[in-house]
Amino acid sequence: MVTIKDIAKEAGVAVSTVSRVLNNHPDVSEKTKLKVLDIIEKRKFVPNSNAKHLKQQNTNTIGIFVKGTFNFLFHSILEKIQPLIEDSGYITIVNYLDEDENEVQQARIFCNEKKPQGIMFLGGNLKNFQDHFSKIDIPSILVTNSASQLNFSNLSSVTTNDKKAVEFAIEYLIEKGHTNIGIIGGNADSSNISEVRLKSIIKTLYKHKINFDISSHFEPARYSFESSYKACQRLINKKLGITAIFAMSDVMAIGAMRAMTDSKISIPSDISVIGYDGIELVNYYNPKLTTILQLQDQIALNAVKIITSQIEKNLDPIHKVLPFKLMEGESVIRI
Length: 335
Known about the structure:
The chain is of the alpha/beta class. 44% of the residues lie in helices and 18% in strands. The strands form two sheets. The protein has a six-stranded parallel beta sheet, with helices on both faces. Helix 1 crosses helix 2 (15-22), helix 5 (72-87) packs across helix 13 (296-313) and helix 8 packs across helix 9.
């Protein structure tokens, strides 16, 4: 039987380093982590604590990786997914990750230890999949992000039509008379969803012959209340005369609205705000947020149907793109 010492020796690292990789400690370089993971994969190593119980493990397990501890949309979708999976005869094991963590690397470790039947990713960075997903050989599905361009035979996806949804949101603001629009969103270099949405924003504004200076009118933020609050403060302090803000998530929109309220800026009289996701919280914020609604029930139902079918019937990957709706609240006015 392969031991942790064997892995350490082959990798040329200490046993403690292998242990830190297995436990996802942040103090291991990316290069070392990948080297150790490759050897673990090649040698089919299972930590002793898990090997002893491997035969007792229920093989009807689906691992779920939730990207972002403040992602209310994912939490809501997860609540709908879990009972659907359990009704299909499977057990779920949920793993929560920071939005900057490498979900594919963590899934590789999970697969090695738990031997699941399938993997579901709620959110993900496509570069992580391009670089590391080939090491995962079980049915998997990426939720709220499209994997259609990755061409993996075991990776499906379910997503909202983000390009069209963002275009609709921007044109909604334009139709209301807003042409000086500020944007709060994720880092396009590390978040594919943020990149897709930002490109759609720029394309839509260009289509309507509206100039957009990304260096002044876009403020990056993490998908959290605090980060978007600070991003909105930076936007406000530039004194650009913006009349509307599009936030790439409802959490970002709510953080921005709090910053505006604290700065004595009236919503929507001074600045209109539109969000994205349609989480339940927006119905109870004052003013009620206007937002793009992702159809969470459909996302959950399609995701579970696809992953269970892939597991049981070994089907070709399916890439489902779902529609969206506008939820009109009280945070946007015509000017």
